[in-house]
Amino acid sequence: MQIQHHPIPVLQSDIRWCTPQPGCYKLNVDAAGPLDDGNWGLAAIIRDVEGVVLASTCWYMLILIDSNVAEALALVKGIEFAKDTLFLQLCAEAVPVM
Questions:
Q1: 17-52: burial string, b at 16+ Cβ within 10 Å, e else
Q2: pTM for the structure as a whole
Q3: Are strands 53-61 and 90-94 parallel, antiparallel or unpaired?
Q4: Does residue 90 form part of some domain?
Q5: What percent of the chain has a predicted confidence (pLDDT) above 70?
Q6: Contact, 68 vs 95, CB < 8 A?
Q7: 16 pLDDT higher than 70
Q8: How far is CA 63 from CA 41, 42, 59, 70, 90, in A?
Q9: Residue 24 to residues 56, 76, 83: CA-CA distances in angstroms?
């Protein structure tokens, strides 16, 4: 029996991570979903000017109306996370919905 390998296409994106201004931390957030059960996953990551990950978190959220609501909620929760972890000099960036 011969196994056939089929490459999985990977989409290339023109979106790239940009460094924050010196003295600031970068907050990136994103939302994924809806999952099979209708719920969403939200995530936030905080990096320094070198791109080193300093903190990250994720949330599993009950059914949300659409991706715009999910992205907005990810940003709100990401800002709360940054405040709670004392990253006060913050630049934020959300991945655009396509």
A1: eeebeeeebbbbbbbebbeeeeebbbbbbbbeeeee
A2: 0.74
A3: unpaired
A4: yes
A5: 84
A6: no
A7: yes
A8: 10, 12, 12, 9, 29
A9: 16, 18, 13
- Answer with the residue of higher pLDDT: 56 or 66: 56
Whole-number pLDDT of residue 93: 62
Record the tokens describing residue 68, joined without a space.
Answer: 């715009």
Q: Which domain holds residue 80?
A: 31-94
Total structural domains in the chain? 1
In-domain check, residue 46: yes
Is residue 14 domain-resident?
no
What are 98's two structure tokens?
């396509």
- Residue 94 pLDDT > 80: no
Residue 7 lies in a domain: no
